[in-house]
Specification:
Elements: E1 2-5, E2 13-14, H1 15-21, E3 30-32, H2 40-44, H3 51-63, H4 69-79, E4 86-90, E5 93-97, H5 107-124, E6 129-134, H6 138-147, E7 153-160, H7 166-173, E8 179-185, H8 188-199, H9 202-207, E9 209-212, H10 218-221, H11 225-234, E10 243-247, H12 252-262, E11 269-274, H13 279-286, H14 310-316, H15 321-327, E12 328-332, H16 335-349, H17 355-370, E13 376-380, H18 388-395, H19 403-406, E14 416-419, H20 422-430
Parallel strand pairs: 5-13, 6-7, 6-9, 7-8, 8-14, 10-11, 10-13, 11-12
Antiparallel strand pairs: 1-2, 1-3, 4-5
Helix pairs in contact: 3-4, 3-11, 4-5, 5-6, 6-7, 11-12, 12-14, 16-17
The chain binds pyridoxal-5'-phosphate.
Length: 433
């Protein structure tokens, strides 16, 4: 498979190069030259296939010659080595739980796949790869966990001091080994600026091999297709495909779902659910895309005012607004509605969604009110414990700590405090050369 840049000013490249670079040199996003069509037989027998077999068959065409089959099979099966259960919540609404991975959020799949690919590529080259990432919470933990112990790769995570949840901070700072946490005395925007600056610093790039692990990387984006196949595998009424609702921020996840759909996966309709950051719902109303500064909400992993993957959504449908509008409905859900939804779903169905899942659930309700005969799946993208400070007061109960966290909360945090100055990051990195 070859990849072009959505800005069309960079040379076409293969999976390996696209994954190593992250962003194309012309600052566009890499996009596969064609979408692989899966055979009708694959969908017919999908219930009988193991999840690692599904993952391998879905991703193999996109990796092409970059990784040999046996290695890619190993990577795919390690990536999906936990459960993705489809749970019935309401008469016509199901939850696809994507939080059973090591850091309890769906970003584990993309991070695990990408880390293993880079680990494989780094074996072929001399010298270590340094993965730099700025996080506002969930990404850092997933990336840290995904790259933990991967030979030839060092990970440097920048996070804003005092601005991530205590669970998230422990997930970033307790691993050690090849994972280095920098606690920045500043905001997430400072962290992101420092990372961007490092990528363009000549001296750093001469002495080190730096790459980024954010969601525009094809190695993080494309494996997210797996969820949609796992959902369909567990969907019993194969003659009536589900509507799928995706809580969206940067729109990487839903774009992966759209790739799956273009490969032949039966999906009746997509719902793009956002919080108050409503550039995409507005686009569907007005056909105008107007980026906004991000607004802070209780579903903070979706606080994005200019979603980077939006352009991929357009690219997938040749920028045809009519086609997009027929396939996707988009709703914005306020914090108030999100809270109300958490309370209602818990009281009426004994199911506790996290704030991100609740946004998708609320959007699903809006859609089903106008499409009464449909049945829907919403993606539950994080475990509610990650947002206990929001969720617990709403339901008046404490959420039991999942086993994977009982150990980590008692561990000592290991981070290095730095000022929000580009030079501070640079001198830290130079010591790794
Ligand atoms: C990152 C994240 C999202 C948003 O996913 P995008 O691919 O950026 O649209 C939704 N929910 C949770 C819990 C997340 O961490």
């Amino acid at each position: 498979m070859r990849y072009y840049s959505t800005n069309k000013q960079s040379p076409v490249t293969d999976f390996k190069e696209a994954a190593i670079r992250g962003q194309a040199p012309d600052k566009g996003l890499y996009f596969p030259e064609n979408i692989n069509a899966l055979s009708p037989v694959f969908f017919k027998e999908i219930e009988k296939l193991q999840k690692d077999e599904i993952a391998y068959r879905v991703i193999a065409p996109y990796v092409g010659e970059s990784i040999p089959e046996d290695e890619l099979r190993r990577i795919a099966s390690e990536t999906v080595d936990f459960d993705f259960p489809l749970v019935k919540v309401d008469e016509d609404i199901y939850s696809l739980e994507l939080f059973h991975g090591p850091t309890l959020a769906f970003k584990d799949v993309g991070a695990r796949f990408m880390s293993r690919c880079l680990g494989y590529f780094s074996k072929e080259r001399s010298g270590k790869v340094i993965v730099l990432v700025a996080t506002s919470g969930d990404t850092g933990g997933a990336v840290a966990n995904g790259f933990y112990g991967v030979d030839g790769v060092e990970v440097v995570i920048l996070y804003p001091s005092g601005k991530v949840s205590s669970v998230q901070e422990k997930q970033l700072t307790t691993l050690g080994k090849n994972i280095h946490a920098l606690e920045v005395e500043g905001t997430f925007d400072d962290c992101q600026r420092m990372v961007k600056k490092a990528f363009t610093d000549e001296e750093l790039n001469q002495k080190l091999f730096l790459t980024s692990a954010n969601s525009i990387n094809v190695a993080r984006w494309l494996p997210q297709q797996f969820y949609y196949f796992f959902a369909y595998q567990q969907w019993s009424d194969k003659n009536n495909p589900p509507v799928v609702a995706v809580p969206s921020g940067n729109f990487g996840n839903i774009c992966a779902g759209l790739v799956a759909y273009r490969s032949g996966l039966p999906v009746k309709h997509f719902i793009a659910a956002t919080n108050a950051n409503d550039v995409v719902p507005s686009y569907f109303k007005t056909q105008l895309y107007t980026p906004q500064p991000a607004k802070a909400t209780i579903s903070n992993a979706m606080d994005v005012g200019d979603p980077s993957n939006f352009v991929r959504m357009l690219e997938l449908f040749d920028h045809e607004f009519g086609t997009l509008k027929n396939l996707i409905s988009s709703y914005s859900v306020s914090d108030e509605e999100t809270k109300q939804t958490i309370i209602e779903v818990y009281q009426q169905h004994k199911y506790l969604p996290d704030p991100h899942g609740a946004v998708a659930y609320a959007a699903t309700k809006k859609y089903l009110a106008e499409n009464k005969n449909d049945k829907a799946i919403f993606l539950e993208t994080a475990h509610p414990i990650k947002f206990y400070d929001v969720v617990e007061p709403l339901i008046g109960e404490t959420i039991p700590l999942p086993e994977s966290l009982t150990q980590i909360v008692n561990e000592q945090k290991k981070s290095k405090k730095i000022f929000a100055a580009d030079e501070e990051l640079k001198s830290f990195l130079l010591k790794m050369a």
